[in-house]
Amino acid sequence: MKNVLITGAGSGLGRGTAIGLAKSGHRVFPTTHIWAQATDLLREGKELGLDDRLIVDKLDVLEMIDKMIEVIGADDGLYRNVWPPSIETLIKQVHERAWTLRTHSK
After folding, report:
1. 69 sits in which H/E element
2. Bridge-partner residues for 57, per DSSP?
3. For residue 81, how many other CB atoms are within 10 A of its CB?
4. What secondary structure letter does DSSP report for 54?
């Protein structure tokens, strides 16, 4: 079982990927920035009996970095269904925060 964080999981490909991975036994953290989408995905997960593997959250892009590192350790899996305007900056922030987290935990 892997832990997977999925951005842009409120609809379409991201939503389908989240549900499919949860059905396959993975623990999935689908995120969206719209409350109505998060609520709807949470409801569907419960109806499908996936509420223990589909942990839905409403996050903005910067919160997603911290959530990924906190919950899945930055190494298991990340499926970015949406990209922020400056992806280079986001990648740099992820690496810096992961490095800081690992260095302080030793």
Report:
1. helix 61-72
2. 31
3. 19
4. B
At the second CATH level, the architecture of 3-105 is 3-Layer(aba) Sandwich (3.40)
pTM, entire model: 0.62
pLDDT at 23 over 90: yes
Q: pLDDT band for position 85 (50/70/90)? A: low
Residue of 2, 9, 59 lying closest to 37 (CA atoms): 9
CA atoms within 13 A on the CB side of 100: 10
> Measured between alpha carbons, how far is residue 69 from residues 29, 58, 77 in Å?
12, 16, 11
Burial code of 36-74, b = ≥16 C-beta within 10 A, e = fewer?
ebbebbbebbeeeebeebbbbbbbebeebbebbbeebeb
